[in-house]
Design a protein that fits this description.
Blueprint (H helix, E strand, L loop, with lengths): L4 H29 L31
Length: 64
């Protein structure tokens, strides 16, 4: 049986309410506690470039 327009609107309103009442505050709390992208400035680091995990650097002729 097809849903009526009112049911569709109520469903969308309920999902939007759930999103803004649960997901958004949870994301804001996580951002307040830690920096997930590690964007903080670290003056002691020489480089912010990090190799992907599980990949070894290529061997050079000096390595043998």
């Amino acid at each position: 049986m097809p849903r009526s327009r009112g049911t569709e609107r109520l469903l969308r309103l309920g999902l939007a309410t759930l999103y803004f009442a649960v997901v958004t505050p949870a994301g804001l709390c996580v951002r307040a506690v830690r920096d997930p992208l590690r964007r903080a400035w670290d003056p002691d680091r020489a480089s912010y470039l990090e190799p992907p995990p599980g990949i070894r650097p290529p061997r050079t002729r000096a390595d043998g």
